[in-house]
């Protein structure tokens, strides 16, 4: 198959266990571009949270971010949006407020968090891993008057809520899934991310492919976690990382290397060829 576009997750996929992009992957991305294959970072992060070295790569133009709520064209600034309405966002915020939680709001390519909860004690209490805590401290915008802000901005790309108790997380997830209004995914075991039901990484990939005149069969998606299910199942070829969840591996067409084994280089050498 002559594949023309690759949507690649970041955390646990392109980024290794040290949260780095290896020189082998950077070289492979460059070689893909020289062969006319479009490499698209495809992440639950906002655009501002994508590592600068990836944002600034000369051959990388398109980004799928905020879990598939936005397809961003770096060259023109154009955004294809599949964001939540103000009304849907209110449903999420009102529901998660019933539990022991804190929430990140993703809006206009950036992430915002309540300054009052933006501290080590709160993050440990809500079960965040060391890597996740470091990520929030270095990339999120901690603001005053967070409640007023979160109930006023529109459209919201996504929300990400962290739970202190697993039983509350399970109950809340069931509520959101039953509404049918949201894509409900998780990038970490202790969070729930809500996006509009019309969005998703795979939906965004196919919208971008359609815009570029690329057939679904010519698309590849690769990832490692639950928020990659949408792209893995909708792409022409769905690849799961060796370090992926068992559920994702079952959905994928093929299991590839781990995120410490240069996945883009693997795809270039074994699939694109």
- Taking the alpha carbons of the first and last residues, their distance comes to 10 Å
Q: How many structural domains?
A: 2
Please count the helical segments: 11
Biggest sheet: strands side by side, in what order? 8-7-6-9-11-10
Question: Tell me about the biggest sheet?
Answer: 6 strands, mixed
Q: What is the β-strand count?
A: 14
Radius of gyration: 18 Å
Helix content: 25-40%
CATH architecture of the largest domain: 3-Layer(aba) Sandwich
How confident is the prediction overall: mean pLDDT?
Answer: 95
Structural class designation: alpha/beta
Q: Give me the CATH superfamily of the largest domain.
A: HAD superfamily/HAD-like
CATH class designation of the largest domain = Alpha Beta
Low-confidence stretches: none
Summarize the helix and strand pattern as letters. EHEHEEEHEEHHEHEHEEHEHEHEH
CATH topology of the largest domain: Rossmann fold
What overall geometry do the principal axes of the alpha carbons give?
Answer: globular
Strand content: 15-25%
Layout: helices, strands, pairs:
Elements: E1 5-8, H1 23-34, E2 38-41, H2 52-55, E3 62-65, E4 70-73, E5 79-81, H3 86-96, E6 101-107, E7 110-114, H4 120-125, H5 130-139, E8 141-143, H6 146-150, E9 158-163, H7 166-179, E10 182-185, E11 191-196, H8 201-212, E12 219-223, H9 229-234, E13 237-240, H10 246-251, E14 254-255, H11 263-272
Parallel strand pairs: 1-2, 1-12, 7-8, 12-13, 13-14
Antiparallel strand pairs: 3-4, 4-5, 6-7, 6-9, 9-11, 10-11
Helix pairs in contact: 1-11
């Amino acid at each position: 198959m002559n594949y023309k576009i690759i949507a690649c997750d970041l955390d646990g996929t392109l980024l290794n266990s040290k949260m780095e992009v290896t020189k082998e992957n950077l070289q492979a991305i460059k070689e893909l571009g020289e062969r006319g294959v479009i490499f698209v970072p495809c992440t639950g992060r906002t655009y501002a949270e994508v590592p600068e070295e990836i944002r600034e790569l000369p051959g990388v133009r398109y980004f799928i971010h905020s879990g598939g709520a936005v397809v961003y064209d770096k060259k023109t600034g154009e955004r294809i949006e599949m964001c939540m309405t103000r009304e849907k966002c209110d449903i999420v915020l009102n529901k998660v407020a019933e539990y022991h939680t804190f929430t990140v709001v993703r809006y206009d390519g950036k992430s915002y968090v309540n300054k009052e909860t933006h501290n080590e004690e709160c993050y440990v209490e809500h079960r965040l891993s060391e890597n996740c805590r470091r990520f929030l401290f270095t990339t999120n915008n901690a603001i005053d008057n967070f409640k007023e802000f979160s109930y006023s901005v529109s459209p919201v790309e996504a929300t990400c809520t962290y739970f202190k108790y697993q039983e509350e997380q399970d109950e809340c997830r069931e509520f959101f899934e039953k509404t049918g209004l949201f894509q409900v995914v998780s990038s970490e075991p202790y969070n729930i991310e809500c996006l509009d039901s019309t969005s998703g990484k795979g939906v965004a990939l196919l919208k971008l492919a359609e815009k570029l005149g690329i057939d679904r069969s010519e698309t590849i998606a690769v990832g490692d976690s639950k928020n990659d299910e949408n792209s893995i199942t909708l792409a022409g070829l769905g690849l799961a990382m060796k370090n992926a969840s068992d559920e994702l591996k079952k959905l994928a067409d093929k299991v590839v290397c781990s995120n410490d084994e240069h996945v883009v280089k693997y795809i270039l050498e074994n699939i694109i060829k």
